[in-house]
Write a structure and sequence with these properties.
Elements lengths: L2 H16 L6 H9 L4 H25 L5 H21 L3 H15 L5 H7 L6 H29 L5 H23 L13 H4 L9 H19 L4 H9 L4 H8 L1 H12 L9 H19 L4 H29 L5 H29 L4 H21 L1 E5 L7 E5 L6
Helix pairs in contact: 1-7, 1-8, 3-5, 3-16, 4-5, 4-8, 7-12, 7-13, 7-15, 10-15, 10-16, 10-17, 11-12, 13-15, 14-15, 14-17
Length: 408
């Protein structure tokens, strides 16, 4: 199996395993530990995001010296052992500690994305970013379906046996790659250069472009995540059908939309107006959220479709803008910085959504999400709006460029 195809398979296995409980954390904690507090669920999700976002930059730094494939072997062995503990412990505190340590090691798998991008030409980055977006979405579909089935027919903590088994599969695939490619453990260390197209950092080591993308990504991720953790609960309340498989299917609609977007854009060539696409995507997501709050099953499904289209355009094209200005050696470092801020947004949403549900009800998570998307869209427009630059002394000639993403 080719290196790229194996890495894609690793990504799919990882995403499926890591999203088994994402739509069902409220039900999981209620069944496994008798914990029904919405604030507790929000705090746990926030802790998961914090763990991953702080661990990933450390793995990205280590990956400058140690080959990623070798690294993944050891991290997934550790993650699998901790997953087995999570499947058996009866202590809520013990579960918290072990599951967070497990995520520290699982965070290393985020290196797959920049690793694959290094294998591709920049002209193909939009397709690669779209492919990974679809894989994440469809991994979430598989995770939601498998997780819903496990929760419906088995004890809640049995989910972690499945996670441990997936870690074993990933270890076997990585060992196969090392043996086939004869990959050395250590890399040839190259001097670290300024990231994001050579721009010098001016705040916490972030270049102007990375800082802009990080900021708007945090807002978009905050807004999108507000409507996720309790969607299955909301759908079951509206439909009157407490069927986990059906809830998982409706939850997964944005993934099918992402696949359709990837298929329709597979032959797109030439320059892309990423900024305009992101703006239209944000508007589509806002309309989709409003429809989901209608408490009409038909409109909820339609809203999920629009929401999925919007998220695809926003998430994929923000990353393409980043990688267009970055260099292959800096892909992992730059992506880890943006990923850090993405998780800042998810953490903020995780804490907020629990209190919103407790105080106002599930329906108002959509209200908060709409407000967040509106704010994110305004900030994105202000940071990336077109500007006219004069290119001649007389001022008669001018070129239109994008703020922060122009070619200097």
């Amino acid at each position: 199996m080719r290196l790229k195809h194996t890495l894609i398979l690793l990504t799919m296995v990882s995403v499926v395993a890591d999203t088994l409980l994402l739509p069902f954390y409220p039900q999981f904690f209620a069944e496994a530990f008798g914990e029904t507090s919405a604030a507790h669920v929000g705090a746990y999700i926030a802790a998961c995001c914090f763990t991953v976002m702080t661990a990933f930059p450390l793995w990205a730094r280590l990956a400058r010296k140690i080959d990623e494939v070798h690294l993944w072997i050891y991290t997934q062995i550790a993650a699998g052992c901790l997953g087995l503990y999570c499947a058996q412990t009866q202590s809520l505190l013990g579960f918290w500690i072990a599951s967070q340590l497990m995520l520290v090691f699982k965070a290393s798998y985020l290196l797959i994305y920049p690793y694959v991008l290094r294998l591709e030409e920049k002209d193909n980055h939009l397709n690669v970013a779209g492919l990974f977006s679809v894989m994440v979405h469809f991994g979430a579909i598989g995770g939601a379906l498998v997780g819903g089935s496990l929760l419906q027919y088995f004890a809640a903590q049995s989910v972690y046996y499945f996670m441990a088994a997936s870690d074993a599969v990933q270890v076997a695939l990585c060992i196969g790659l090392v043996l086939t490619l004869k990959t050395p453990l250590r890399k040839t260390v190259t001097p670290v250069q300024d990231a994001a197209g050579g721009e010098s950092g001016f705040l916490f080591g972030l270049s102007p472009l990375v800082l802009k993308i990080s900021f708007v990504s945090a807002l978009f991720y905050f807004s999108s995540f507000m409507a996720r953790p309790y969607f299955s609960v909301y759908w079951e309340g509206v439909s009157g059908v407490e069927q986990k498989m059906l809830s998982a299917l409706v939850y997964s609609i944005p993934a099918w939309v992402a696949l359709a977007c990837l298929w329709m854009g597979r032959n797109a060539n030439g320059p892309q107006n990423h900024v305009q696409k992101i703006q239209w995507g944000a508007l589509a997501a806002i309309v989709g959220l409003v429809l989901q709050a209608s408490e009409s099953m038909v409109l909820i499904v339609l809203g999920r479709c629009l929401f999925g289209y919007g998220l695809y355009q926003i998430m994929v094209r923000l990353e393409v803008i980043l990688f267009e200005k970055s260099t292959p050696d800096d892909y992992a470092a730059d992506f880890s910085k943006v990923h850090f801020f993405q998780n800042v947004g998810v953490i903020g949403a995780s804490f907020s959504v629990g209190y919103i549900v407790d105080a106002l009800g599930v329906l108002h998570t959509f209200t908060a999400s709409v407000v967040g998307f509106c704010l994110a869209l305004v900030c994105f427009y202000l940071l990336f709006k077109p500007r006219v630059e004069t290119t001649s002394a007389s001022g008669n000639n001018a070129t239109m460029t994008l703020s922060g993403v122009s070619n200097d």
